[in-house]
């Protein structure tokens, strides 16, 4: 007779118990607390994880749930739970990998609140939703009562154990409403005797609050089962409240993972303090953060375009073509870095607030909380290694959020060094890329509408993807490359829309005469027209602007790649990274502006041009509209960075990307409403392709053909069998 050592309601142990019952193998169940001082778990499993299967014939213990399942199948082949067909066997193992992965993600959310952030927790929920969608798809594609025909087996045990675990531990999760066919399938499994006798039930726990000599410090919380708890039949009553585990307050581990047991901690005395298990932003604040991110992002682009439209010389001339507008892209770049440097005000305010709240003893929950890196590797998490999982790192080519890490969570960043001292100077490299990219985009904005400017910036995903392959040696799948192609088509359509509008508005005959003659003559004339376009605002200026903005994305992508390479080795709070890049960018831009002014701006050809800093500042201080918009641009830049990071931390990076897409739409609508541009039908499919391609690249949108092909194959097979 076998002995199964488990910690209920572990879904991993339940798989073993169901398999033993289905095979008709007798066993005894022994419940163990792996962190108890007298635990025997290390005797059987060097990883100190449950479940463990102990044979009765002296053979070594078997551990890790997926291996135990394989072991039982090999040792007891008379009642097989794995199908004989090779493809079906592989599919069953795939189902187990997904089911175990969802369990891993669920329990990873329950680790200590100071070891997680909302974006990190959201990442686990995306895994949960992705796994449930996969199970729903497989259930829909099935041709029988179970996942593989009408034969109950290995795949059903894994899926059923997961769903039963969710039903007990996460009763409020909406999976029953979102996946009705999956629920029906699970309810059918629960009718089997092996499922009925192994139905998980919550453990009964009571907390013990130990007194602390310091009245304001947090009390230690220890957890233990009630002496009458049937899930712990072998635990003496005297040990009921003796299961202290100082490093895992409020959690209990089972099979190497952490389960949340308490929602709040009661402090004995004259007052009580309630806290939630997770440091989450109030739901009432989230709409404000989203709205402010959207508002500041829209204002930033529109205010910059507004500056470009302000007349600074020859404004009294009746001929509008002789008006000179504000054209200072370098100064606008300087404004951006001033706004980014303003992030240090948030850091300072958070520090002062934490000192005030704690009386100088440290940070409180009211202070700014750093953002945990969404790209943290699974083997860097404090929980023990997991079963059936692979290196599930979020693709660093994902441009939803910058790959920045949290230095305050030591277990997560244990292989990364704090980015401090002279090493902070490394952030000057991405700042220089930001200078080049932003300046080129500001020049491009002089020649195109605000909406075309914002849409063309979508080309960023193309260069991020290419650079990640070339420099970071990343691998992009088919759909990643397809999404990049879609983005290119979208950018081309947006640029073409602006070109057609300007060409139709041009003086008749100014272009047609140049479209004849030999090829060499045509190329020479085209080059001349591009030069003239910059000065005379012909139809080609839109193409020039689009090319400048799209080309600027090369530098922005380089900035992301440099940040990725730096943050793979070092960790720093994201808002501090933005602040440092603002400081370095401001310093380099200011020095470069002075050099360019002396070298170019003071020359006869350069006076009044892009590099005439003296003229640029004169125009700012002598034109109220430009001065006010400059201040507002700096505020909007700082606000956009702060609210963007807050949205990423409070909701998710995916939400931030979606909001950024809405920003493009709002810029377009506001520009139309203000009469700054006219509606162009070709811009609609271009924008749609940009949104779809970017969403596909960032895994926000799933390729529809995968499920469609699977359903088509399934229906085709059924049609063949019917015929």
UniProtKB/TrEMBL annotation:
The keyword Hydrolase does not apply. Keywords: Membrane, Transferase, Transmembrane, Transmembrane helix. InterPro entries: EmrE-like, Glutathione-S-Trfase_C-like, Glutathione-S-Trfase_C_sf, Glutathione_S-Trfase, Glutathione_S-Trfase_N, Nuc_sug_transpt, Thioredoxin-like_sf. Residues 204-219 have a biased composition (Basic and acidic residues). The keyword Ribonucleoprotein does not apply. PROSITE patterns: GST_CTER, GST_NTER. One of its GO terms (cellular component) is Golgi membrane. GO terms for molecular function: pyrimidine nucleotide-sugar transmembrane transporter activity; transferase activity. Residues 85-210 form the GST C-terminal domain. This is Glutathione S-transferase-like protein 5. It comes from Elsinoe australis. The lineage of its organism: Eukaryota, Fungi, Dikarya, Ascomycota, Pezizomycotina.
């Amino acid at each position: 007779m076998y002995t199964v050592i488990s910690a209920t309601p572990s879904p991993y142990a339940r798989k073993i118990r169901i398999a033993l019952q289905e095979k008709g193998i007798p066993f005894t169940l022994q419940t163990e607390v792996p962190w108890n001082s007298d635990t025997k778990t290390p005797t059987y499993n060097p990883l100190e994880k449950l479940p463990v299967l102990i044979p009765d014939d002296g053979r070594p213990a078997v551990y890790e749930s997926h291996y135990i399942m394989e072991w039982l199948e090999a040792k007891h082949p008379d009642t097989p739970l794995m199908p004989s067909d090779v493809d079906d066997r592989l599919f069953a193992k795939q189902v187990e990998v997904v089911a175990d992965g969802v369990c891993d993600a669920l329990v990873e959310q329950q680790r200590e609140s100071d070891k997680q952030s909302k974006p990190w927790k959201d990442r686990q929920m995306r895994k949960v939703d992705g796994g449930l969608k996969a199970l729903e798809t497989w259930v829909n594609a099935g041709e029988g009562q179970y996942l593989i025909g009408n034969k109950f087996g290995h795949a059903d045990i894994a899926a059923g154990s997961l769903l039963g675990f969710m039903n007990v531990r996460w009763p409020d999760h909406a999976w029953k409403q979102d996946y009705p066919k999956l629920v029906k399938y699970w309810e059918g499994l629960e009718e089997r005797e092996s499922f009925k006798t192994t139905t998980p039930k919550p453990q009964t726990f009571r907390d013990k609050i130990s007194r602390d000599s310091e009245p304001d410090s947090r009390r230690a919380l220890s957890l233990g089962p009630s002496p009458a708890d049937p899930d712990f039949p072998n635990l003496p009553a005297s040990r009921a409240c003796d299961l202290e585990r100082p490093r895992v307050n409020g959690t209990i581990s089972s099979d190497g993972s952490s389960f949340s047991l308490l929602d709040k901690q009661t402090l004995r005395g004259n007052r009580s303090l309630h806290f939630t298990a997770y440091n989450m932003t109030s739901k009432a604040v989230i709409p404000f953060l989203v709205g402010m991110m959207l508002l500041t992002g829209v204002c930033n682009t529109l205010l910059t375009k507004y500056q470009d439209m302000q007349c600074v010389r020859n404004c009294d001339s009746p001929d509008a073509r002789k008006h000179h507008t504000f054209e200072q892209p370098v100064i606008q770049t300087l404004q951006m870095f001033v706004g980014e440097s303003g992030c240090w005000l948030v850091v300072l305010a958070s520090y002062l607030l934490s000192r005030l709240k704690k009386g100088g003893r440290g940070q409180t929950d009211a202070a700014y909380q750093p953002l945990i890196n969404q790209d943290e590797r699974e083997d860097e998490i404090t929980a023990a290694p997991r079963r059936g999982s692979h290196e599930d790192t979020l693709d660093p080519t994902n441009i939803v959020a910058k790959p920045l890490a949290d230095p305050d969570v030591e277990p997560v960043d244990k292989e990364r060094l704090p980015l401090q001292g002279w090493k902070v100077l490394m952030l000057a490299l991405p700042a220089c890329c930001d200078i080049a990219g932003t300046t080129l985009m500001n020049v491009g904005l002089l020649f195109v509408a605000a909406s075309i400017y914002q849409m063309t910036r979508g080309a960023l995903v193309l260069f991020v993807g290419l650079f990640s392959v070339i420099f970071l040696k990343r691998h992009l799948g088919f759909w990643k490359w397809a999404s990049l192609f879609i983005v290119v088509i979208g950018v081309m359509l947006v640029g073409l829309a602006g070109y057609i509008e300007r060409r139709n508005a041009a003086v008749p005959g100014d272009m047609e005469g140049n479209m004849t003659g030999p090829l060499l003559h045509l190329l020479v004339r085209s080059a001349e027209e591009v030069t003239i376009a910059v000065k005379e605002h012909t139809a080609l200026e839109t193409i020039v602007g689009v090319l400048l903005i799209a080309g600027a994305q090369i530098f922005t992508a380089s900035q992301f790649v440099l940040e990725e390479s730096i943050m793979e080795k070092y960790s720093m709070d994201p808002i501090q990274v933005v602040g440092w890049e603002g400081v370095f960018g401001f310093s380099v831009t200011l020095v470069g502006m002075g050099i360019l002014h002396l070298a170019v701006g003071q020359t006869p050809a350069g006076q009044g041009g892009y590099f005439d800093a003296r003229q640029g500042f004169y125009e700012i201080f002598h034109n109220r509209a430009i001065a006010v918009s400059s201040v507002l641009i700096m505020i909007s830049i700082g606000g956009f960075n702060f609210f963007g990071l807050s949205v990423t931390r409070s909701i998710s990076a995916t939400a931030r990307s979606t909001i950024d897409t809405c920003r493009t739409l709002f810029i377009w609508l506001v520009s139309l409403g203000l009469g700054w541009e006219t509606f162009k039908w070709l811009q609609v499919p271009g924008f749609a392709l940009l949104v779809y391609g970017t969403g596909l690249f960032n895994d926000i949108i799933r390729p529809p053909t995968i499920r469609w092909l699977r359903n088509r194959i399934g229906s085709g097979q059924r049609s063949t069998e019917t015929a």
